Amino acid sequence: MYAAWTVKHKPKSLIEVVGNREAISKFERWLKSWEKGFPPQRAAFLYGPPGVGKTVTVEALANDLGMELVEKNASDYRTEGKIRQFAGLASQFGSFFGKNRIILLDEIDGVYGTVDRGAVPAITQIIKETRCPIVLTANDFWNKKLVAFRDKKKYLIIEFKRPLVREVLKHLKRICEREGLATEEDALKFIAQRNEGDVRSAVNDLQALAQGKKMLRYDDVSWLAYRDRKDVIFSVLRLVLYGKSCASAKQAIDMADVDLDMFFEWVYENVPYHFNVPSELANAMEALAKADLFRGRIRRTQNWKLLRYVIDFMTAGVAMARHESKSSGWIPFRFPQKIRMLSTSRVERRKKLVIGKKIKRRMHISAVAAQKEVLPYLRIIFENNPQMAAGLTGWFNFDEEEVNYIAGGKRKAKAILKTLK
Ligand SMILES: Nc1ncnc2c1ncn2[C@@H]1O[C@H](COP(=O)(O)OP(=O)(O)OP(=O)(O)O)[C@@H](O)[C@H]1O
Ligand SMILES: [Mg+2]
Description:
Blueprint: H1 5-8, H2 21-33, E1 43-47, H3 54-64, E2 68-72, H4 80-90, E3 101-105, H5 119-129, E4 134-138, E5 155-159, H6 165-179, E6 182-183, H7 185-194, H8 199-210, E7 215-216, H9 218-221, H10 230-242, H11 246-255, H12 260-274, H13 278-301, H14 307-319, H15 337-343, H16 346-363, H17 367-384, H18 386-396, H19 400-407, H20 410-420
The structure holds adenosine-5'-triphosphate (ATP) and magnesium ion.
Adenosine-5'-triphosphate binds next to α3 and α8.
């Protein structure tokens, strides 16, 4: 079964939450103090950057103390009316079953653009009268709309900081152990450093990078460093694909300080779209194959002298394959598959997963396999054959948005949906 590691390996107990020890024990003391009567501060306000463990701390602690956790989020407090709906919960100390209750108003800054004016006073009013602990979380403490919650007398204000690399590393290691994934320490360290204390994205990176591997090496992750440097890559790529001389194509790589393995992926992904004479495309691919051969040899023998052959083949070799091939107008460069997988947004990943699940239902394969093995073919069909795509849409029960996504645009999707009707 597919599960995001942030969910699958979410700490269930406080001891698994890394970093912010002091903040966490302050919060724990406050929560325990409720057993002795109402404390002066009826609510705690946890703030700090995304993905550092605010929400998970509250969840894990509630679990440790056997408390009933009532979680509310953005959509529950957009209007005064909605807030009133949970006021009742706060008016009793415990739940029906005798468990103590804790109410979490998560990410309250996330909604303040759209809330109505009565929302903040309604929340502060509930907090004033509450008989059970209320916890607020937010990213931006200085948000003007949250001024009402900055009163230290009424709120226990606790800052969550980004956990240290060492602490994030500990969490990543634990996950690898549970997943039976062997790793080079440097690989995990690299991921932890790169994410600067955002544990959630570190875990997401780890999962994406480890997919299908039993061993994660530093070399598997180091190219990530270049993920954000598209602009440099594009100009180097242009020189390689359209270079007029060996020298200029070769220089391109020196010009910009790009990682060779990563650059290889870029060239490999884009060559097919930039050569329209088949024999020339074959020659370019042949050059890349040779570059790859030497890459492999270097990896095995550590004989770095061979590097110049890798460079020659993947730059000059590709450039010199072009004789008659012309670029037919402007063709955008494509992101290498490998990188694309990692840079797709959370929204897109979710969309893919939903599609994967629909495929799974029909084809009896896992949702992950569906995304990897079936979706690419659907893409080709949806881009080229509206008739067949319409049939498949019906069979898989895709909705309009999903068809849009698979077809890669509204125009193509429209043709498919029209056929369907
Ligand atoms: N300190 C941590 N220790 C262990 N896991 C963590 C920690 N912080 C985050 N995680 C992982 O990342 C996920 C998201 O964390 P959490 O929801 O607590 O972040 P947050 O600080 O509330 O962020 P946001 O401000 O975006 O709500 C958790 O489910 C957990 O898997
Ligand atoms: Mg949160």
